[in-house]
Amino acid sequence: MSAPYDIETGAPSAELLEVARQEIRETPEVRAAAILELRKLLQATSDLNFPDDDDFLLFYLRPTHFYPESALKLMRNVAAFQKEYHDVLHNLMPSDIKNEVTNYNLVTVLTNRDQMGRRMVVIRMGEVWDPKEVNEDKIFAILYTIHKLAILEPATQINGIVVIYDFAGLGMKQIKGMSTGASKRLLSFIQEAAPLRMKAVHFINEPIIFNMVWALMKPFVKEKLKKRMFFHGEDRKKLFKHINPECLPADFGGSLPALNYGSKEWYPAMEKYSDFIKKFNSAGFK
After folding, report:
1. pLDDT (tens digit, 9 = 90+) per residue, 42-78?
2. What distance in Å separates the CA atoms of residue 54 and residue 121, rounded to the nearest whole number?
3. pTM value?
4. Spatial distance between the Cα atoms of 228 and 126, rounded to a whole number of angstroms
């Protein structure tokens, strides 16, 4: 990584390409043929407007294991999702969430990856979250912006992403700040409209009252994602079965130093890639 709070846009290493071959069928031949076919499928549509350069098409081919028809379906899902949540996502730029990113440390991307090379994102929804200061729409806008940057990283395209939800100190103030509609939006995004490989979602420090949160989410969780959701409470040994403690900060019982950075330090990276974010925003229905 060129800087602690920047993304990795360099070409994938030979080792990473071997992972891609084993897990998502990627070879030079498969990649070239799939890009060509997806471009043809996209150009044949009458209602989709997506950039069709090789790199942009790869964003949709890698999470769909290089099946062009599936990649096109994902594109259509993304377009439909952006249309449905137009009020939050239309032309969403980093400047629209600067206050929430720089003044509230609710969503943090760890600078290191886990033992499998996956990006790790921490979302704090417990006592540190004041819904009156940052509502659900803004939290989702932050996550949506982060995912735009994540898909620029070949290593994240291939290895995927892990999310850690920290519910330490969750109380009724936070519960009242949540809604069924926002839960549906988040899960629709994760399961249907994110060109990323979601490898796991970990819940930690969740108190008994968390059952009320789960009641909002459970109706929208499909079986594939349910198998990738893990509930650990305060049991760090359970978490360590999935993420090596050598990859976690002391905040979560790991052997790395406690976090001394947050979303504020990442904000310049969001601005740095504003041109790409505009490009992503331009994709959708005609």
Report:
1. 999 999 999 999 999 999 999 999 999 999 999 999 9
2. 27
3. 0.96
4. 22
